[in-house]
Amino acid sequence: MTDTLNATITAANAWIAADIDPADQAELAAMVAQAATDPQAAAELEDRFRATLQFGTAGLRGAMAPGPNRMNRAVVSKAAAGLGAFLLDALPGQKPRVVVGYDGRHHSQAFAEDTAAIMTAQGIEVMLMPRLLPTPLCAFGVRHLPADAGVMVTASHNPAADNGYKVYLGGRVVTDWGQGSQIVPPYDQSIAAEIAQVGAANTIPRATEGWTVLGENVVDHYIAAVLGNRDGAPRNLRIVTTSLHGVGGQVLSRMLEEAGFTDVHPVPEQYKPDADFPTVVFPNPEEKGAIDMALALAQQVQADVVIANDPDADRCAMAVFDPRLGDDGAWRMLHGDETGSLLGFEVAQRCAAEGASESAVLANSIVSSRLLARIAAGAGLGYAKTLTGFKWISRTPGLVFGYEEALGYCVDPANVRDKDGISAALIIAQLANRLKAEGRTIIDCLDDLARQHGLFLSDQLSARFSDLSLIPATMARLRANPPATLVGSPVVEMVDLAEGWDGLPGTDGMLLRAQDDTRVIIRPSGTEPKVKCYLEAVVPVEQDADFDTVTAARACAREVLEALKPELTAVLGL
User: Fold this and answer.
1) 397 and 361 within one domain
2) Residue 35, pLDDT above cutoff 90
3) Is 276 contained in some domain?
4) What's the burial of 96, exposed, middle or buried (CB within 10 Å: 0-12/13-18/19+)?
5) What whole-number distance in Å separates Cα of residue 427 and Cα of residue 346?
6) Residue range 14-30: average pLDDT?
7) What is the secondary structure of 254-323 as a DSSP string?
8) What distances in angstroms separate CA 286 from CA 62, 132, 407, one per listed residue?
9) Tens digit of pLDDT for each residue in 448-479?
10) Do 318 and 307 share a domain, yes or no?
11) β-strand 181-182 against 264-266: which pairing, if any?
């Protein structure tokens, strides 16, 4: 055996002795025994002990398996103890309050219960959600209860093998516009430093009782808050929904029913939580094929709109019948920027009607469409762009609506300071309902936005990496040899986002804008092993343009986006 493998086996045996989960101990012991003669087992063992899963602004997220570089009860226990120590330091002489939620993934409930037991032993007041529930319920609980922190055990839309540990801060710890939002620096570093001081998992004190299991009234209060955005209009809409085997199905159905939408058809095979996500390859509405069953059901029942949530229901997607597809039209999912612009327009119109001014702000991330800025200006409202991620969007002063193109929408920041796929679903349903009553469609509304502000069309190109070391190399190649043109149009603006831009802190990425206003932003994903390219083409449209003219503008923008993809693939060496 090599010296590296010997060191790994020594570390693994120490981990086994300190682990708290018998199944994890047995799995790791079997792998240690196998590693001596099986190179594949040795490589896997070395990877599990190569590093420690890092706690950052996304909390923890990774594949579930025993070992320090994976998600498991031992790693989560150390994270819980470290977070608890941080809260006790932040609130000296006071008793912190924490709300803990969990989704339907494998081990989520165990991770949540470990957190409750450890923090209770530390003298923290812990309130555990009554059952597996969507992430927005946890974010709501932080502000509603109120709590000083929230922990949500979820890997959102990641593959079935993954789990995660998301942290919110609020109450007496964060009291500014970020109260109830996900953590940002320097909180993440402070919590990580506390985690690093925690001893072995089996030495962490645990209570056997003393935390509070919340009642179903927390769900009642959440739905009542969502329904505060109800418009009161008569309902005449047929909706197909899917929760993609996640935890949003029952809450979404109840909310829509109480909002007056009774002609609702959930995809039955995907309605109940199933941690294996058996009907989809990736449980993310953005992924190709993920909502095919919902689209087929929509065609069958002649629905007006499809609403899809990801497994923890913090994201929301909308699909509609588009007459521009094929000879007779077809169903398609709207791009996140299309839905974001529609929701932003809805919120902006409501704010303008209420006499709001520039102190009411619409915000989206730098990788999202620039159309939202024009919508805000047209309504006399403020606008802000932020770094990627709702941890930044939700901190915007004066926020009334925020979104990012990855299907995340915050339509009710007073109650949920994060993306919320349930409350977004209500606004989508009400918009579709109103348009249907007017004899119009979602597509008509998108065309109206193009006439008013110009046609903005977005797309994405991404590459998934199994070797994470290739991601920095890819970004280095781009910085060394950036393209001089985008689909023939000269690049007139080039920004290395790592150096900061337009008042924003530095972040890994490059922005390129061409003379014809085509824009590309390239950055590593913060939650997945990907490099993502965010593409946007802009085509001017006259305010009195007819359907055919807008159709031609869309086709022109689409041609630009499709031509961009092979150019960028070559530039990045993908």
Assistant:
1) yes
2) yes
3) yes
4) buried
5) 8
6) 97
7) HHHHHTT---EEE-GGGTS--TT-TT-SSS-TTSTTTTHHHHHHHHHHT-SEEEEE-TTSSBEEEEEEET
8) 20, 23, 8
9) 999 999 999 999 998 888 777 788 988 998 99
10) yes
11) unpaired
pLDDT of residue 1: 61
User: Which of 215, 248, 276 delimits the end of a domain?
Assistant: 215
Does residue 146 have a cis peptide bond before it, meaning omega lies within 30 degrees of 0?
yes
**304-to-244, 318, 319, 389, 441 alpha-carbon distances in Å:** 20, 11, 9, 31, 9
Instruction: Assign residue 32 a region (left: φ > 0; alpha: ψ between -120 and 50; beta: otherwise).
Output: alpha
Mean pLDDT over residues 349-363, rounded?
91
Asked if residue 226 and residue 325 are part of one domain, the reply reads yes
Other Cβ atoms less than 10 A from the Cβ of 132: the count is 21
Counting the structural domains of the chain, the total is 5
Quick check: 95 and 85 in contact, CB under 8 A?
no
pLDDT at 527 over 80: no
What's the alpha-carbon Rg for the chain, to the nearest Å?
24
What one-character-per-residue DSSP string does 436-488 give?
A: HHTT--HHHHHHHHHHHH-EEEEEEEEEE-SSTTHHHHHHHHHHHS--SEETT
Q: What is the mean pLDDT of residues 48-77?
A: 95
For residue 449, being part of any structural domain is answered with: no
Question: What are 284-343's pLDDT values in tens digits?
Answer: 999 989 999 999 999 999 999 999 999 999 999 999 999 999 888 999 999 999 999 999
Point out the residues that are catalytic: 156
